[in-house]
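# step 3/5: fold
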Amino acid sequence: MTAIPRDLPAARTRPRLRLPRIARTRADEPAWALPAFLAVTGLAALLYAWNLAANGFANTYYSAAALAASKSWSAWFFGSLDAGNFITVDKPPLSTMLMGLSVRLFGLSSWSILLPEALAGVLTVALLYVAVRHSFGPLAATIAALVMAITPAAVLIFRFNNPDAVLTLLLVAATWALLRALDHGSLRWTVLSAVLVGFAFLAKYLEAYLVLPGFALVYLVSANATLRRRVAGLAVAAVAVILSSGWWVAIVQLIPLGERPFIGGSTTGSPLDLIFGYDGLGRIFGMAGPGGGGGGGGGFGGATGLLRMFNGEFFGQIAWLIPLALASLVVGLWLRRRAGRTDRGLAAYLLWGSTALTTGLVFSFMSGVIHSYYAVALAPGIAALAGAGLADLWVLRSRSPLGAIALGAALLGTAAWGMELLGRTPDFVPVLGPAAVALAAVSASALLVASAPVWQGTVHRLAAGRVAAIAVAVGLAAALAAPAAYSLATVQSAITGSDPHPGPAASGGFGGPAGFGGGAGGGFPGAQAPVGSTGSLPAMPAQGSSPAQGSSPAQGSSPAQGSSGGTRSAGPDGSGTDSTLTDYLVAHRGQAAWIVAVTSAQRAASIELATGDPVMGMGGFTGSDPAPTLAQLQQYIASGKLRYVLIDGGFGGGAFGPGGQGGSGSSGSSISSWVTSTCKVVDYGGSGSGSLYDCAGTVS
C-alpha cells in the first residue's frame, strides 16, 4: 500500500520565517500553517488566562505552599506548607517551586499563583502542535492543538494551581523528545525524554511513570537503529529517569527528620513512604494512608471499571472525544498496516495510543483516591489521535468515497456523542446538542456531495475541494461544540477547593456536577460556584499590602462574605477564617515562628494566606498525619516558637477533632486533650473559627 501523505500538497512554497526553531514552519508547508499555529496557541492563551483572577487562590493548600516558597528558600526546596518548615504538602515540590518563584517576582496575588499554570497550558498546546506536526503534518497538528486547547479538563487545570498542569506539560515535552529520538535512534533525544519524565515525577510522583511502558515499547520497536543500540538506549534512558526522578528524594531522605519538615501525607516523614504508600501504590491499590483512600470506592472518581471515564464524575472532564480518538487509532494503524517498522506515522500512533490507553486503564481501575481532574493527563493523547485520524481521513477522502463517508461519520458521530453527554446537564444550553448534530449532518452531506467521483477530472474539481474543506471545518466546529461550551462555562466560573470540576456550576458535591462520589447532596463548601457568588473565594491582600512581610491584609481588602455574617476568607475546608482571629494572631505573634497551630494543613492554608505569616498545620492535609507528637508540640511551646493553638472539629479536623484518632496512633487526640485541659481559652473577639488556646507558660 502506498504510504499516506502527511498532509495536502502545499499550494506554494515560501521561505522560512525567523521564529524559534521549534515553531518554525518548513518551506514545503502550506501558507496557512503558521497562522493556524498562532491562532490555536492564541486561543489557548485566551481560554487559560481570561477571567483568571476569578478563581482567587484556587486550591489554597498549594497557594499557601507557594507563599511559603516565596519567603524561604528552604520551604521552596522542600515544598513546605509554611515558611517555618513544619510540614510539606503531600506532593513533590516542582509545581510549588514555579509558583513560589512567580510570587517572589510579582508578589502574592491570584495572578502570580495561577499564571505559571496558564503558561504551562499554552506551552502544552504549542508543544503538542510541534509533536503532531513532526509525525502527521500541520493539518493534524492544528486539529490536535485545537482539541487540546478546548478540552474541559485542560481549561480547568491550566487555570488552577494543582500540580497536574506542570505534569501534563512535561509529559507532552517528553513525548515530543521521544518522537525526535525515534528518527535516528538519537541518544541525546532519548535521554532528554527520560529526564523530562523524571522531572514530571517531581511534579506528581508515580503518575508520571504511566507513560513509561508505552515509551519503552515504541522505542524498542520503532527507533531507527539496530537492536543493540535500541536496547542500550533503553538502558541509558532508565538510568536517566532514575537519576532525574530520585535526586530530590535522595537529598530529603539523607537529611535527618529533625532537621527538615515532615513530609505531608506520609506516616513516617519519609518521601519513600509517600511514594509507595498514600501518593503512589496506595492510589492504585486502595491501601489506607494518612490521607484516607482505602477500599474500592475510588475516592471521588466513582466506581471502578472500564467505563469509568464516562461516569458522572469524569464525563465532563474528558469523555467528549474518547470515541473519536479510539476510532482514529484503529483507522491509523489499519492504514499503516504495511508500513515499515520505522514509519513516523505508525510510531506516533503506537506512542500516543499506548500511553493514552495505559493511563486511561490505570485511572479506570485504580481503587484508591482518584480525582476526576487527573483526566487532563489523557487529553494530549486523545487530541493527538483525533487530529491524526481526521487528517488521514481527509487525505483518504480524495482517493475513495469511503474516506468521505468515514470522515463525515466521524464528525457526525462525535457531535451526537456530545449531545448525549450534554443531556446529563439538561439545563445547560439545551439547544446546543441538537443544533450541533444538525450542523454536522449538513456538513457530512455536503462533504459526500463534494467528494463524489463525478467532480474528479472536471473544471469543478477545485471548487468541489473548497466546498469539501469548508464542510469539514463546519463539521469539526459542530463536533467540538459540546466540549467547547463546557470549557467556556469553566472560564466564566469561580472555581476553588480541592476537587474542581469543569462545566456549568452545580449545587452540592465535592466540587463537581455529580456530587460526592457520584451522588447528590451533602455538598463540600469548596465546590465551584458562579462568578459573584459569596463565600467561595479567599481574601486577597489589598493593593499595597505586603503579606510576605508578615503584616495582616491592609484595610480596604475585600474578603468574601461568609454565610454566618462577618468578614471571612474562605479556606479549603469551607469554614472560613474570621478576620478578628487573624488580626489577633498577628498582633500577638511576638517572636513565635508560627502565629498559631491548627488542626489541619487545610485550616492552616487559609490563615496563612490571610496573614502572610507561617501557620503550623498539624496533621497535614486531612489532619491525620502523625505530626507533631504531643512531646514535639510541647517543645515548640517551651522554646517560644509557638504560643497559640486553634482546635477545630469541622472538616479537616482529622485526628484533632472531638474523639479523633491519629493516622498512626492517637497523637492527634492526645494533643487535643492536652491543649483543652492545660491551655487557656482566648476571647479574641470573634466566633465560628474554633476555640483558640494560649499555651504560653504551660511547659517549662
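# step 4/5: annotate
Strands lie at 493-494, 529-530, 568-569, 577-578, 597-598, 616-617, 644-647, 680-681, 691-694.
# step 5/5: archive (pending)
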